[in-house]
Amino acid sequence: MNDTLARQLPAFIVDRVDFGIFAVDADMKLLLWNRFMQFHSGRKAEEVIVRNLFECFPDLPRKWLEKKFKGVFLLKNFSFTSWEQRPYLLRFGHDRPVTGGTEFMHQDCTFMPLIGASGEVEAVCVTLFDVTDTSLMHRELERAMAALKESANRDGLTGVFNRRHLEERLAEEFARYKRYGDRFSFLLFDLDRFKSVNDRYGHLAGDAVLREAAARVSACVRKMDVFGRYGGEEFALLLPATDLPSALIVAEKVRRLIGEQPIDWEGRPIAVTASVGVNTVRPDIPSYEALIGEADRALYDAKEQGRNRSVVFKPEPG
Amino acid sequence: MNEDLCLSEDQRDALQEVANIGMGQAGSALARLLDTFVALSVPRIQLVRVTELGKALADMVGSSCPVTAVRQSFQCDIRGEAIVIYGQEGTNQLWDLMGYEPADEPDAAAERELLVDVANVLVGACICNVFEQLGRSLSFSRPTVIGENVPVEYLMQPSALPWKVALLVEVNFSLRDRQFTSHLLTLMPEDSIRQMKRALDHFLASL
Amino acid sequence: MPLPVLVVDDSAMARKMLIKSLPASWDVDISQAENGIQALEQYRAGKAAVMFLDLTMPDMDGYQVLETLRREELNTFVIVVSADLQPKAQERVRALGAIAFVTKPVTPEKLLPILKEYGLYE
N or C: which end of chain C has fewer CB within 10 A? Predict the structure, then answer.
C-alpha cells in the first residue's frame, strides 16, 4: 500500500464506518459529522460543521448534555450514555422498517476527550452505536425471563400459584404487617374426603376435580389476593387488607363455590365439599409459619366438627 | 504475600505523592464542575489479599447499611477497576448538580443513569490525574451498576475473584451543604502491581 | 554566601521534585525536613532564610509551622507547596503569613516568578 493511501485511510474509515462519529469543541461547535450521522439525522456535514450542536439539534436535552461535555473537558475524562437508562441521544429512526419493534434507534454513546498540545482537552469526540437489535433482544429476553419466573411460581396441574410463591408472598405480607401494621387474613382449605374421589373415579378424575375447584375459587378472588395450591388437595388464599369478619365471608364463599354444584367429569357429576381454616394476623404471632400453623389447626377443627364448614382459629385467652 | 508485589519505600512514597496530587487536582476540577466544595480524604494505599477484601470494604464503608455501587474498568499498560460505593442517600441530592432537569421524572432508569454519571465523574477525575503524572492516558469501560441496596459484602465474592493480591487505593468524598458521601476504591491485581512498580521506578528515575 | 533554603515535606519524592525545580544557578545551601518539628529545629539552626513548606504532614503539619512562626515572630520567607487546590487553603496560609502558594506538581515555571518577585533570585 502506498503512503498516500495509508494517509487517506483514517479519514475514510471515520467517514464510512457503520456507527456515528461526531466531535465538538469547547464552544459546542461541531467539528466532525460522519456519514452515519448525516444519513440518520438528514443533515449534511456542510450544514452543521462549525455550527453549535444545540442550535442544530434543539431537541437535545441541553442542560444535562452540556454538563456531560463540561465534565469531559474539565476532568479529561471519558463519559458514556447507555440505552438501558437513556434510550437515545439523538432521535434517529432505525433501520428496521420492516421488522420494527421500536420507534427510535437505541444508542450507546462514548464521549472521548481529545487532549491537545496544551495538555488541555480541546475537543470531545462522540461515538454513537446503534444498539436497537441488542436492546430488542434484551427486551425479549426480559420478557422470557419474566414468563419463566411466572411459570416457576405456578402449580403445574391447576395453574394457580404454588406453595413456594404463596409462602414468599405471605412472608412479605407478614413483614409489611410488622413494619406498617397492614392487616391481612389467611385461609387454608382442603377438599373433604378427596382420597375417596381418587379411589372411586381414578386419579384422572381427581386431577380434574382439583383443576375445577381451583378454577372456581380463582374466578372469585380479588386482584390483590394470592391464591395457590398448598399441596395435595390443600389450597391457601392470602387476603391482604382484610379483617376477620370479611375473611370469614370469603371463606364461606369459597366453601359454597366448591360444594354447591357437583363437578362434572366426563359427564359424571362428582360432589365434593371443602373445609376451611380461617386465621387473621395478630401482634402476638411470632412468624408467618406460626400463622400457617394456626390456620392448619382451624382447618383440623373444621374436619373434626364434621367437615364442609369454615372455622376461625381462636387464640388461647391470655 | 509475594515479595515482588510489595512496594519499596520509594515506590510507596512516590505513589502516595502522585495520588495526593491527583486527588487535589480532582477535587478542584470536581468543585468547578459541580459548583460546590468537594472534600476528598487523603488517599489510603494498601496491598490487600483477596481474603481480606471483605473486611477492608466493611472497614471503609464503616456501617452495616445497604450500599449501592458502580464499577468501571480502566486500562493502559496498567489495568484495574474502580468501584464507587454510595452511602444510604445514594445520589438523590445530586440531580441539579449533574444538570438533570427537575422535570425529568426520576424513574428507576434515570436514577441509575445518575448513579453511573456521578461514578464516572468521580472515577475519571481521580484516576486520570494520577495516571497522567505517570505519563499515561487511560481508556475507560462503560460504568455499570453492580449492586443496589445490598450489603457491602455482596459486592465482591472473594471466591469468584481471579486474583490473590491487589493494590487498593481508597478515597472518600463528601460535598458541602449536601447529604452525599461516597467511597472510591481502585483495585489493581498482581500483573498491574508489577507494571505500576515499573512505572513508579521510571518516574522516580526521571526526577 | 549561599542562601539557606529549607525544603519541608514528608515525601522524599516531593522534596526531590522541588529541589530539581529550583534554578540551577541559584546560590543556595539546601536542607530538608520531614515534618514541622524538624522544620522548626532547622529554622532555629539558621537553615531557613527561605522555607518551602508542605501542608499535609504527620507530626506537626504546615499550618502549625506557620502559626508557630507567627506567634514567635520569626522571620523567614515561607512558600507553601501543596496538592490542595481549593481556594480556602490558599487564603488560610496567606493569612498566616506565607508569601506564596504553589500547587503541586511543582515546576520551575511556577517557582521562578515568585523567587524573582521577592528578590530572592535575580
Answer: N
Q: Which residues pair with A115 in a beta bridge?
A: A121
Query: What is the pLDDT at residue B105?
Result: 60
Looking at A167, A233, A260, A304, which residue is catalytic?
A233
CATH fold of A3-138: Beta-Lactamase (3.30.450)
pLDDT at A149: 83
Give the C-alpha separation, A107 to A93, whole Å: 11
Which CATH superfamily does the domain covering B3-205 fall into?
CheC-like (3.40.1550.10)
Q: Find chain C residues with C-beta within 8 A of B14's C-beta.
A: 11, 13
Burial class (CB in 10 A: 0-12, 13-18, 19+), A307: middle
Which one is the CATH code of A153-312: 2.170.120.12, 3.40.50.450, 3.40.1190.20, 3.30.70.270? 3.30.70.270
Extents of the domains making up chain B: 3-205
pLDDT at B40: 87
Q: Is the ipTM of this complex over 0.90?
A: no
Lowest mean pLDDT among A264-273, A278-287, B153-162: B153-162
The pLDDT tens digits for B148-185 are 888 887 888 777 788 899 999 999 988 877 888 899 99
C-alpha cell at A221: 378472588
